[in-house]
Amino acid sequence: MSDSDQQTIDSLSQKLADSGLRTTPQREVVYSTLLKRRDHPTAEDVFARAKVDMPTISLATVYNCLETLVQCNLIKQVNHERGPTRYCPNLQPHAHFHDENTGATIDVDLPPALLAELKAILPPSLEASAIEITFRGKSV
Amino acid sequence: MSDSDQQTIDSLSQKLADSGLRTTPQREVVYSTLLKRRDHPTAEDVFARAKVDMPTISLATVYNCLETLVQCNLIKQVNHERGPTRYCPNLQPHAHFHDENTGATIDVDLPPALLAELKAILPPSLEASAIEITFRGKSV
DNA sequence: TTGATAATTAGAACCATTCCAATTGATTGA
DNA sequence: TCAATCAATTGGAATGGTTCTAATTATCAA
User: Fold this and answer.
1) What is the DSSP secondary-structure string of A84-127?
2) Does residue B24 lie within 7 Å of nucleic acid chain D, judged by its CB?
3) Which residue, of A34, A89, A118, A133, has the fewest CB within 10 Å?
């Protein structure tokens, strides 16, 4: 394991501990799987990749770990139409572009000013805790 | 049926015909159900409401009709996390606010200028055909 | 009217996800 | 150190929204 991997596992342990949760080998494998290839894998994708490092891990555990990581704010869920949920370790404010040609999900940085403008369109009675912006289209 | 209902059914027929599809009693009932209460019902909701006017309609037909209406650009699908798909006859550019208190989905008008700014954050290689903006939060 | 095509229908199948009950693993306190 | 307790993992069953299938019914065009 590289130094930077060890560092990210440290921050994983930190955030888990903050929520009173344990650092388990399964959680480490699932989290490092997401960091390794940031291509918005599904739970099944993560399962397949995690099994390379830990052949005994179960799909149920992958779901459990992903949910835990989401709750600890280490990763984000990405939904597109009714497809399977995808997972994303990018914590910066960003939008998603769904490429209809390839099926790929691409991160698009979101300028803070635009985020503020978006929040401003809400009537005062509505207080947003999260915004999700999704583009659908084709890459040329 | 009121004059305005008849008018909307006329535009339904028009758009269906444009796509080479027939105007059926089921499609009329499903469409008018969506116009009657614009509260983003699920397919099951639409089914329950449509049955009042047409007790023999089936859930499969409701799904078929909703899909047809989406394809004819008469209604929009709204997805939120992994909940059931909801349906919306509002064709103006708008965002959705999901109220965590009530579960309600609220339309929020989207200024054209903001829409343009959003499209501008995409790299030139990505051409968006649709944008979806969803807020999650609480109403106060 | 007749044949072709479109639409509806009931129920089966699907698939991502969640639930459940049993087991395994880790931590705490005697 | 050794229980006792609690957390986490596991395989498989169950769930729920949606889609598929095959049969029937309705509509249209010749």
Assistant:
1) PPEEE---SSEEEEEETTT--EEEEE--HHHHHHHHHTS-TTEE
2) yes
3) A89
